[in-house]
TrEMBL record:
One GO CC term on file: cytosol
Entry keyword annotation includes Thylakoid: no
Taxonomy of the source species: Bacteria, Bacillati, Bacillota, Clostridia, Eubacteriales
Protein name: Orotidine 5'-phosphate decarboxylase
Orotidine 5'-phosphate decarboxylase domain span: 4-226
Domain of life: Bacteria
GO biological process: 'de novo' pyrimidine nucleobase biosynthetic process; 'de novo' UMP biosynthetic process
Length: 232
């Protein structure tokens, strides 16, 4: 898999999602289906987007006891998606169980990646609310190491941590990075943020971009700008 831009389809209905995708007449972007769209429309929307030819990152961030996550992953393995994820905070036992559940009888499975610390978290909140007192980058690296040891394919992290993760877990361990804004853009609820160009420089494999594209006056132009800055 090479570098690419993944558009976060954070919409609340099938109609809005398909109307958005219809704007892309010359390309088939890699897209992310997250909780909002999946909870609103269920697995049918994933199948429909796949039928249209898009690669899909199913971002449901599973986090539960190992047995529950294993069974949920087994159910999700019926969907033809490229990447699926869970929270590394669920522990190595949960990640191992997830891999088992996700692997189909024929041995195939989507890539499985783990969320380290959400990009909406910063050092101050992590310490004050989560009572985690190590430096944030150390926490992210430690969660990434746990994910690699459990046999996962990569992590979700900020672009700011992508280089350190590759150094610790290897160049082929995927870094899928939300927390991306154009220079001067509104970060909103994101805390660990950088631009597409900087994410490329820092070694991210994939950037995940939602509002800077979906809320843009011209989403196709915003997507192409991301591709120009990050991929080309
Ligand atoms: O740590 C994380 C994990 C997932 N996300 C998801 O990525 C997009 C980002 O959207 P923006 O509008 O570009 O902020 C969104 O779907 C999140 O659920 C994340 O931001 N951080």
């Amino acid at each position: 898999m090479g570098k690419d831009v993944i558009i976060a389809l954070d919409f609340d209905s099938r109609e809005k999602t398909l109307a958005f995708l219809d704007r892309f007449t010359e390309e088939k972007p890699f897209v992310k289906v997250g909780m909002e769209l999946f909870y609103a429309e269920g697995p049918a929307i994933v199948r429909e987007i796949r039928r249209r030819g898009h690669r899909i990152f199913l971002d449901l961030k599973l986090h539960d006891i190992p047995n529950t996550v294993k069974k949920a992953m087994a159910a999700l393995s019926a969907l033809d998606v490229d990447i699926i994820n869970l929270h590394a905070a669920g522990t190595a036992a949960m990640m191992t169980a997830a891999l088992e559940g996700l692997t189909r009888p024929d041995g195939t499975r989507p890539l499985l990646i783990a969320v380290t610390q959400l990009t909406s978290t910063d050092q101050e909140r992590m310490e004050r609310e989560l009572l985690i007192h190590a430096p944030l980058e150390e926490v992210v690296l430690s969660y990434a190491s746990n994910a690699a040891a459990a046999g996962l394919d990569g992590v979700v992290c900020s672009p700011l941590e992508a280089g350190a993760i590759h150094r610790r877990c290897g160049a082929s361990f995927l870094t899928v990075t939300p927390g991306v804004r154009f220079a001067g853009g509104d970060a909103g609820d994101q805390k660990r943020v950088t631009t597409p160009a900087k994410a490329r420089e820092l070694g991210s494999d994939y950037i995940v971009v939602g509002r800077p594209i979906t809320q843009a006056e011209n989403p196709v132009a915003a997507y192409r700008r991301c591709v120009r800055e990050f991929v080309d």
